[in-house]
Predict the structure.
Amino acid sequence: MLKKLGGYLFKYKSLLCSLIIVMAIVAIFSGFTIGMITPIVSAIFGKSNVSKGPWILQWLFNWIEEGNRMDSLVKLAISIVLIYGIKAPFSLLLYYLSDTLEQKTISDIRVDMFGKLTTLSYRFHSKIKSGELLSKITNDTEKIRFALKRGVIDLARNLFLLLVYFGLALWASWRLFLISIVLTPMTLLIIQFIGKRVRGKFTTLRKQRAFLNTIASEMLQGIKIIKSFGMEHYELKRFEEESTNYRKNYVKSNLLKGFLPISSEFLGSFLVGVILVVGGILIFRGIITPDKFLIFLGSAVMLQQPARQINLAYGDLQHGLASMESVLEVIEAEDYIRDNGRLKLDSFEKVFTFSNVFFSYDRAEPILNGINLEITKGGTLAIVGPSGAGKTTLVNLIPRFFDPLRGKIKVDGRDIRDFTLSSLRAKIGIVTQDVILFNDSIRNNILYGRPEASADELNDALKKSNLKDFVNRLPDGLDTEIGERGGRISGGERQRIAIARVILKNPPIMILDEATSSLDAESERLVQDAMSKLLRGRTAIIIAHRLSTVRNADRIIVLENGKIIEEGDHNELLRKRGLYKRLYDLQFKVVNSQDIS
Ligand SMILES: Nc1ncnc2c1ncn2[C@@H]1O[C@H](COP(=O)(O)OP(=O)(O)O)[C@@H](O)[C@H]1O
Ligand SMILES: [Mg+2]
């Protein structure tokens, strides 16, 4: 997982290199500020109390010591201001570079995931809850960002600081250094032990949060149903329960995580105590000078901060890697539908054929059971049958939203899998019962079919889809915003926008899946009319609930339990006195009684 994250990071090599250089510079300057203890002690307590100072700074110290004590004091003050002054712009640059690197990396991950989600098949999407995917895009990338910052970039910065402080401490007194070195691994062992447990906890926490998202998004989408069934209280209770679970687990996990810095802090103070005693003894015996002891102490104190953050980094990184895993599940997902075809489907000449096609969603019981079918060019094929018979499933195989389990679908004698998905889908237009529109203007929703269409073409599509009057009546016309999922306009208007959209796409094959089933009679008339204009000159596959709309089809197949049980034209099927006739009689009576009332 770390390697994958590294892969994203190492794409920015020059940025990474500059960042490392700046980190080193800032760390060295931080060391200088501690090194200034020597001239301070010298200026205030006298030269007899000090060493020669770290070699890099010796020239500076010599300069400070020239002249009388007052001169030295002033030069000392100037030097300290200068050191901080030079360090400041580098510190700023460090912020800038690390934020840039972090954001570029995260943006890549986010965009990769979004891109993959758009290419993943409909089959993949129908299996994963959208709340979970949303949580991956928002929450998980945020956690990866945090891990990248704390666990990688800050870790590197702190490692540099640690190195400098270690160097200073070692230079100041190897004896005191050794004592620290012996005591430190104890800390690390404890930290590692806790870190491992933290990772597991946070994986569960992430899943719980995603589940909360799923419940919330289901509630928002299904608010009508919830209200009509009076289930508000039930939904609230369900959400509350999960929220409580999440809260408890969150507190528990964070307590465990908080234990990391607290334990390292405690162990650190113990270390300082030991060093104070031993250091004092070393000075009393004249083994080290006071400035060196102070430098060691200074380094040891300064060391605490980066050391603590390095300890934290481990927990943060583990935490983020759990999210990385969750994101990679999408980015590296093997899709069910492979776009391996090389040929471009330019046009189709004669027929689409289904030969002995079987399909099932979960491989348990087949939803389509040996379908044999021919769709001739320019003809209209109607599919009727009871709800759940597999009609939608059957047409979903044509644009390869799903692939058959067994059997083949061919166009002009070639397996449709030999063609690229994009060229296949470019030939097919679909209008379904539940129209999907975007939260945008009417114009942009229609142009979704072909963004480069001209004004004339758009106008033509509006006419054919009977939208002209409707749009003219709107104060904002085509620029009217239709709301989330087109919620601000009626079902019939949505349906006609969908038709206009597909008219612009101008595909030779049209699939209509119960496109008028949910409309009232008046809107149905407008939609039917738009539909017949749409179908003119195209090959059509129509799934219809109302048999009146399929009467004129060239051929009708009757599907039941995933099998074609009857086929023929309207009159032939009536003569057979089978399921079609039964369905027809049933509807005919309904239509009659409606007419009377
Ligand atoms: N995405 C899916 N995953 C699992 N089962 C599904 C899915 N879509 C449909 N089904 C099931 O497949 C069967 C056929 O559904 P469908 O093709 O939509 O029927 P129809 O369009 O004839 O009403 C139904 O039993 C339905 O529950
Ligand atoms: Mg259906």
About this structure: The radius of gyration is 36 Å.
